[in-house]
UniProtKB/TrEMBL annotation:
SUPFAM superfamilies: alpha/beta-Hydrolases (SSF53474)
Sequence intervals crossing the membrane: 9-29
Name recorded for this polypeptide: Alpha/beta hydrolase
GO MF entries: hydrolase activity
Signal peptide (UniProt feature, chain positions): none
Organism annotation: Apilactobacillus xinyiensis
Keywords (A to Z) from UniProt: Hydrolase, Membrane, Transmembrane, Transmembrane helix
Name of one Pfam family that matches: DUF915
Keyword Hydrolase listed: yes
Amino acid sequence: MHNKRKKILIGLVLLVEFIIFITSTLWIFRGSVLNDLNVKKTPTATVFIPGYGGNAVSTNDFIEQFNDHKIAKRTLRLHISSDGKVSTIKQYAKVGNNNPLVQLLFSDNTHPIKESYQMSNVMKYLYEKYHIKSVNLIGHSSGGQIAYEYMVNHPNEKNVPKVNKFVSIANDYPKNDPRVKNLPKNLEVLNIAGEIYNFGTDAEEAVDIVKPMGKLVAPHVKSYTFHLYKAGPLSAEHSMLHENPEIDKIIAEFLFK
């Protein structure tokens, strides 16, 4: 009996190790979907805005996948203090015709409206210090709200980069907002929702809440596209959407092709 239990235990350990090995292997090679993706290289910077309570982990995978596959170049990591002061934590590369990537880290990261006003300082900083004339904005969850609120509340700012494209991932917006007319007229918008299997939600944001963004913004921008990403929880869950190379590919084709 003792030997039988020991064999069962060894079998379970080997099974767990096998599952871990397979999962790790799949995780390592998950970025292969980005192999051989041809993109245009321009000086337009792509700015990554984390969601509620977000930190470097929230956007690192996006940036690393783009950088490692030579789609874009990891360039700047910026810190925004609680009083809105912007500083460079690290400059990884020069800003140039390399699709520069800019990572934002907010000290006060649980107040999206406050962060949206601090975005004005970020944009002036990029324009004045790094001479960046145009940007794309990517916001996950309430990071999308930060980007939207910045654009509708600061339509006539001088000496800031022009916003060309906006990617919103798993966020909801007001059904009616008179400020929407302040969005840049040439703005191109990609709205992404996640759905776990056929449950209608990514476990935090329902598809029916994310999708209506189109009715709000489409009449006021150059183009609007909605993409529903449906998969299992390891790919389509709310927080896994920013750890998913398939989503990275969708975004890269929108931003850089």
